[in-house]
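note to self — DONT lose this again. spent like an hour looking for the file last time. sequence + predicted structure for the chain T wanted, 273 res
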Amino acid sequence: MTTLTKRAQHVQIQTDAPIETWFHIGGRADRMATPNNAAELAECLRLDPNLRVLGDGANLLVDDDGVGELVVRLSSPAFTAWNFDDESVAGRVRVGAGANLPKLILESVRRGRSGLQGLGGIPATLGGALVMNAGGAFGQIADTVARVHALDRSGKPVTLDRDDIDFCYRHSGLESLILTEVELDLPEDDPEALRTRLKEVMQYKKASQPMREQSAGCAFKNPIMDRDMEGIGIRGERVSAGMLIDRAGGKGLRVGGASVSPQHANFIVTQPS
């Protein structure tokens, strides 16, 4: 049962709190906080500079023994709101790092703002998506980023422009920071065309990925070939990890309640054992 401790200054701390993930397995948090603003987040960092940030739990496997560090959820309005600047030529949008990415995608498409429609079907908070530079065959979140606002582990505010961030394939270099807000450039476009494109992306993913299963999305990065292999790829080419697992006979393999999806071999799904 989740219990409450006394407030640490202004931040309320839960003890023995559940950690919700898309796997629906794993342990609990010894302590969990939901700060209401940046000042309370800085207070959390003073309590535990090694704290862990919990996003949507869509790309997370928690140890059965739980988490000893303070777990922080940026789910309060101060970290989930967005502001579309209709006067900005570049289509600048300021979004809290705790905002739900799928909802942001739908809102941007509704407003006729281009850039996120290729990320349909990716479950995440915006901050979590940025830290791992989430993406797929139709684009990556880094392509829309103008500026990132964060706190470092001492609680000091940090602002980074796009060119200061080490974005590359599934990498950002932002892991040491606690993201608080992101500025995105989402230029104006035809809303109907954006809706059509989003539908196409979602239809493709529903047909090729186990989106209704309990998983954390693709489990492995697509590797780069270190030599030519006939029927697989050429040296220096990035190839599908799912295809390699499939070729190795991994589809459908199961240990206890975890199995390799028979629909897409780069998805590990969980069921009751």
